[in-house]
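Good morning,

Both structures are done.
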Amino acid sequence: MDNFLHLLYFLPLSYLLFKLFKLIDQKRHQCCYILDYQCYKPGDDRKLSTEFSGEIIKRNKNLGLYEYKFLLRAIVSSGIGEQTYAPEMIFHGRETCPTFEDGITEMDEFLNDSIEKVLARCGVSPSDIDVLVVNVSMLTSIPSLAARVINRYKMRDDMKVYNLTGMGCSASLIAVNIVQNIFKCRKNAYALMVTSESLSPNWYTGNDRSMILANCLFRTGGCAVLMTNKVALKSRAMFKLKCLVRTHHGAYDDSFSCCNQREDEQGRVGFYLDKTLPKTATRAFVDNLKVMSPKILPVTELLRFSIVSFLRKMSESKGGLRPVINLKTGVDHFCLHTGGKAVIDGIGQSLNLSEYDLEPARMTLHRFGNTSASSLWYVLGYMEAKKRLKRGDKLFMISFGAGFKCNSCLWEVLRDLGDRNVWDDCIDSYPPENLTNPFMEKYGWINDEDPSTFKVPE
């Protein structure tokens, strides 16, 4: 009888222990790790110097004096240097008549370089990849770019494949979120995330100021990221994803239309940036932080901010500075999207960040420009090359994109990092003493020109 009673107790207990073990094991295999990443750096023959940029501008016969002055101000204040990269067709003088093949060639150069390098460094075969996510917003091909990757590397036919288009500069974290969700229901998997942008068919040759600006900011680039949820590979991993938050304000008309691809009055296609962009970006940023902050900050900071906000609200005098939440209480490094100097300055002011915090984004904008969704990984590469990333550090990534979207995530650094990646040839010279763009020195005479007598330079 006693044995029977013991058995009655033992069976439910065993079942509970089994379910508990299964739950813990499932949680262990739902982690998302970055094993390695590889940014793309074109050859030196694709660098946009001041001299060549001036030639490109002079080739555009649709520009007048006012457009020249606008471009001069935009380039000088952009925060971009002379070593950024442009598509090959620009150097062949074909920006007014790009072909579909130009866009495909631009993508193939990046895909063949970065994917091969990241797989080789990790010792992973293309046939080992279980999930492939490719995001390139402004180039659609049939078969898809994801299919080109599969064909190029002869990957398995049972892969989970996602090809993202039209998601803009925030697409990298959307791709990470897709991988994160797949890892929740699939054990011991490898995922390859590929992010870039095709500028070849999207170089604007008209004179609409809101569309010319994109030419001043966007540059060629891309990144391949290898991720896994294999617990056995944790010791080799670089980062572990802690949390990710996506905010989409497409329901607001001003947010939806503030940056989009459109035709100008002459039918020339370009990327339009509206003057309401800063306002809509701020709104999305604030809403994203409202969700993210409780996930990454200690209770003491959340309590402090709540008390200060409440006291200010109840106070009769509502002047003075608004309370700012201190993200540094839960974050060690800030990986910001290089949307432009104004974007970096705005985030820095909103979060009360120091120049040390903003340096990686500023230097990435100066060296590589805005490489769209891949820009976050160049910023990350700068931090690593400067040996800032130490085991246990928390890294906050934030990006913005058309739609309008604001996406952010928090990574934990799993080991001390110091690889130079694409910064190998120049990291020792950064940050430079002077970030002034030489355009004003060379083309400043445009400001003194008389509109009635101005002629386009030969």
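Second structure follows.
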Amino acid sequence: MTTPDRPRSRASGPTAPAPPSLTRSPFQSDTFTSATFVTVGRGPALALAAVWLFTRVGMLALLASDSLGIGGVGHEVRLLYRHWYGLFADGTFPPGDPTWQYPPGAGLVIMAPGLLMPWLGYTQAFVVLTLLADAAVTLGLALADRSRLTHGAWYWVCALPLLLHLPLARYDVQATALAVLGLLLLKGRSPTAHRLGGALAGIGALVKGWPALALIGTPRGRTTREAWTAAAVTALTLLAVLALFFSDSLGFLRQQGARGIQVESLGGTALALGRAAGLWPGTSEIRYGAYEYVGPYVSTLGHLFLLLTVAAVLWLVLWRLRAVRWTEATPLDAALAAVLLLTVTSRVISPQYLVWLLGLAAVCLTSRRTVMRPVALLLLPAAALSSLAYPVLYAEVVAGAPAGLTVMVLRNALLLAAAVVAAHRLWRATVTPVRE
């Protein structure tokens, strides 16, 4: 007869020592608690629902006008997703399309609006499903918050609108929902919950890739075996089904491997600063559906960031091997740290990547033992600056104008700081020996 996993430690004694004391943040203060009205009862739930409704109506209004900044945020759904939907209806993934750079599971999200198209147009159906995914995230976080004084649901509801209407016009909310709900299930004690959480992470991995990192911090032993096995079986089964019914299901690998340095990435910011200082003569152009830099040293810089990504993965493996203390928050904290590390080392940091990070930060805030509160705070201005970068000041960002360059330097500095802080606090809370 098996028993649920218990926290393990290499330290002597029957129980692991508590994590080292970490600096308190505003999320732990009585002031923040009062300001957000997060207490047990019906009133806060109604307040949360009212704020969700108010903010989402505002996001819908922005999407309906779609004229902020450079405008055209919804074109990706109206034109590109709708075009791909027609190809899927013919039984094929986009053949040779340089803009198709997503794992095959993304096709399921692109096809899903067809379920509502007898009553709605494609764009309207896509937005409805995105809002349903957003509501599912909110409900899951609210249920996780209900028994103690935590702030995950409020963080998600209030932070997502910082990205304006962009989340409604991309499928990142759906991918984030799979990762968030998977992590919330992994907090449970039953094997069924662990398997369901792993299955959601496996589906998420085939939809966007990064949700697989939701499993990086599962406790050693039965929980890891149950979750990782379920994720692998689910992902392989879904991949086989898609390969059986659709042609060219792995064609996205060609496009992903050829990506360069996007203007919004950390590498892009370095090149923009070099161009502003007269040290780099390159320019930007649309490649693979986004603005990328072209010119000398771009390929070298791209290879450098690939090496940095490999280094980040190796650090995560080392952390997993060295960690000796697990709490209920460790899997949540590890997922956020992992996605942050792979985000800042990526050659592409699109503004919708902040949807992932905000969702994972919200999950962390459902546990009072999380060490990621400062990281969650850093992500809020990063999200606001991302919406300034796109769509509000995107023309200035592409041109390397002072306003656009300033926004990108600040946004990417915040993301880099968040990644460093997350890695440091995760290591300190789980690996660094506790002083007696």
